[in-house]
User: Fold this.
Amino acid sequence: MGTHIERRDGGIVVLTVDHPPVNALPVKGWFDLAEALRDSGADPQTRVVVLRAEGRGFNAGVDIKELAADPGHDKLVAVNNGCYEAFKAVYECPVPVISAVQGFCVGGGIGLVGNSDVIVASDDATFGLPEVDRGALGAATHLSRLVPQHMMRAMFYTGQTVTAGQLAELGSVHRVVARDGLLEAALEVAADIAAKNPLVIRKAKAALNGIDPVDVNRSYRFEQGFTFELNLTGVSDAIRAEFGRDEEA
Assistant:
């Protein structure tokens, strides 16, 4: 369990997230992922990072059960900080980050993928934000990097998901492949990037971030404020408790 770092030839680093059963990350998981991303990018030998996951799906967001077991708000504050750090680490990684996505990519998974540079997905991958159904908000910042504005709003309000194929048609997903060829496809893209001059690629990443129309770190932090508000009203606790009962049924 955890996040594993594998350094491959040519300056390619593969980060694998493995938190059974569905890669819903606890507080520590988010901070560990952020640290792995920062460590990988800080290594001058790293030219590109591939972010992937084991299991049925890429990421199921935060560990709702961990939050529900906390009688106060300590875990909520901690996991929000962990998500912020992980999303920020993807975006600010000084080399390109390629997300290799299979199965479900929801909640916090959208934050990771939306901040990545390139997305390769399996043909069974689906993307969405069920936050409203969980009594929370957040990651609309990152979903809006994947789909047009009005589509993002409809998805956010309804919890609707979209397929990798749909995102490919929009230009957000670079390649759609069979699940058993996902890592290979991501590594092919990584090798293409890694073959370029490493200084030029690092400067290109900094330049592209510098011309982004939205400050993703500030934007996501703004969203999180409304999550805190919802939790202070008590509505989020009630929704999470109902979610837990549905899981047990």
Remarks:
- The radius of gyration is 17 Å.
- The longest strand covers residues 12-18.
